[in-house]
Every structure is written in C-alpha cells, then in structure tokens.
C-alpha cells in the first residue's frame, strides 16, 4: 500500500538548512565587527571592546618643552600620564617661552611645546605645527617674603626707592606682561635685577635678595608658604593665554595632549593656580 505525502500548501516556505543559517549569521557578525568603532577616552585609553590604541599599546617617548611657570603642574601631569600609560616616557624641559621657541626653530627635538602667552608662539616655524589649543590662563601677582619687610601693599609701592624689585627679562612673557601693567598703572618700579625666567625671578624673593617680584599668580600658589602674594588690581593686571602646540603626530604625543585637554588634565593645571582656558 502506497502512502501519499501531503501536498505543500501554496505560499508555505520551504525549511532552510541549518548550515545556511549558520553561515548567514556568521557573515552578519563579521560585517558588524568590521564596521564597529567607539571613540577612545580623553586620556587616550581604549574603551572595552573597541578598536584603536589602548593604554597598553602606547609606546615611545614624548618630549615636552614648557614655560617655566608650568613646572609644577606639568610635573604632576607627567606623573599621572606615565602611570596610566606604562609604555610611554614623558621627558620635560622648562624655561623661558622665548628661549624654548628659539630652540625648536633651531632644530631641538620636541613633540609638544606649551607656552606662556599666545604671542610667544609667533616666532615659531608654522610648518612644524600640527595643532594649537589654549589650555589655561594666568595673571600677574606681586610676590614678597612672608614677613613682607618692605610693607608692599599694592603695585604703587614698587615705585618706592626703598623697595628692591625684581622682574623677568623684557624679552620673556612675564617681563613683557609686567611692563604692560606698569604702563597701565603709570609707575616706574625700582628695579634692581631682571632674570631669565619667572622661576629665577621668584627665587630672588625666596632668598631674601629682593623685597618684591612680579611673577604669575600660579607661581605664588606653587611657592606655598615660602612667599606671600600681593594682588594686582584687575584693571591694571595683564592676563595671558597658554597655548599647547603639537609638533608630532605619533600616538603617544597625541594622547598626552588629549590628556592635558581632558577634564582631569585641566583640573590638575588649575589646581596650581591657573585659570580656565
């Protein structure tokens, strides 16, 4: 006796072989995997399950030249960045912004340069610049010894012949800013010395070799109890914007600049007395 199979209903789908389903699924996953990307975080770290450069992948040396006023804040940034990226070494060098720019123009190796004041960057060879961003601001402040022996209470006191004043050299940003402030205040300070950068200027007060020095607010903050700050009236003060200039396009250098510009990096800089960009 012959058994007849039921005729398939019109429009019914024929079953698909399991092998075909598996191949189709695998192909879809492969295509999805190839097209999926997630941005890295601000400190250059790769997020879980993403493509790109991870903390462990970053390798190399980042050479950072920075204005002397950034010494303490960039030392902290260097420490934190290297801890987060064990394969990267950050080499820092500090000095007058004018000197640093001159060194780079003359061929000194540098991945990143951070300067006090946008005008300090004007002589820099623009063909080397990959990117420029402002990351901080700063204002001037008078630094005096903790006991303030000359009784300096305002910028006008710097014109007294009995007050020994130390300034930065006229060619460096802190010196130019001080001259602009004196012009607005219409005074001529009793200057006994002009130093190569802001740290050398501040050192004269720390060593009790001067009664007052015009430096940045951030330097007074960083000096802690070794000096006392005397504020300069806002209408007479001079503000500077601090640019960070990227000179190299390797992943480690890019990651360092990204970390500096991140919320955490900016908070570190501002904890040393700098203003927001």
Task: Describe the overall structure.
It is a single chain. The chain is an alpha/beta fold and about 280 residues long. About 30% of the residues lie in helices and about 20% in strands. Strands 1, 2, 3, 4, 5, 6, 7, 8 and 9 form a nine-stranded mixed beta sheet that branches. Helix 2 links the parallel strand 1 and strand 2 (about 90-95). Helix 2 (about 70-85) runs antiparallel to helix 8 (about 265-270). The longest helix has 18 residues, at about 20-35. It is elongated. The termini are far apart. Residues about 1-55 have low confidence and may be disordered.
Question: What are the main properties of this structure?
Answer:
8 helices; disordered N terminus; 277 residues; alpha/beta; elongated; 32% helix; nine-stranded mixed β-sheet; 9 strands
């Amino acid at each position: 006796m012959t058994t007849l199979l039921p005729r398939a209903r019109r429009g019914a789908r024929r079953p698909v072989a399991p092998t075909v389903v598996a191949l189709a699924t695998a192909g879809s996953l492969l295509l999805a995997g190839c097209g999926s990307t997630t941005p890295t975080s601000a400190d250059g770290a790769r997020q879980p399950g993403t493509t790109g450069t991870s903390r462990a992948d970053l390798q190399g040396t980042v050479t950072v030249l920075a204005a002397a006023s950034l010494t303490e804040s960039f030392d902290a940034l260097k420490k934190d960045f290297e801890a987060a990226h064990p394969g990267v070494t950050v080499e820092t060098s500090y000095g007058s912004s004018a000197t640093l720019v001159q060194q780079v123009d003359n061929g000194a190796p540098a991945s990143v340069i951070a300067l006090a004041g946008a005008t300090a960057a004007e002589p820099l060879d623009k063909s080397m610049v990959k990117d420029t961003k402002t990351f901080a601001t700063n204002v001037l402040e008078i630094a005096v010894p903790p006991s303030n022996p000359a009784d300096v209470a305002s910028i006008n006191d710097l014109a007294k012949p009995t007050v020994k004043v130390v300034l930065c050299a006229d060619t460096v940003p802190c010196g130019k800013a001080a001259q602009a402030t004196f012009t607005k205040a219409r005074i001529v300070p009793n200057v006994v010395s002009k130093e190569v950068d802001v740290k050398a200027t501040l050192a004269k007060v720390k060593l009790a070799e001067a009664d007052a020095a015009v430096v940045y607010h951030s330097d007074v903050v960083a000096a802690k109890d070794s000096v006392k700050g005397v504020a300069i009236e806002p209408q007479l003060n001079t503000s500077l914007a601090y640019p960070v200039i990227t000179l190299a396009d390797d992943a480690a250098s890019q990651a360092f600049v990204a970390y500096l510009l991140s919320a955490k990096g900016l908070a570190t800089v501002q904890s040393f007395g700098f203003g927001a960009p």
